[in-house]
Amino acid sequence: MRGQHLEMYTVYDHPKDYPEAFVVRRFRITKDGPLPDDRFLFISIDLDTCRELMMMMQLTRVMRDADDDPVILETWL
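Below the sequence we write its predicted structure tokens.
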């Protein structure tokens, strides 16, 4: 459908820009590939809080790929 896209949320374990926290970032998956959506950024000192948010949004967790950046914990669709 025109104008629609898939969204995914990636959970990071203390990335360089937020070394004291876990971070959830949203990406839009389009025909051109994943595009960061800077309108959504969730920061927490607690990983379970990040996961609870994803579950409240009724998303499904996908575990990280071995080739992912080491700070990526998981992605939610």
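The first strand starts at residue 6 and ends at 13.
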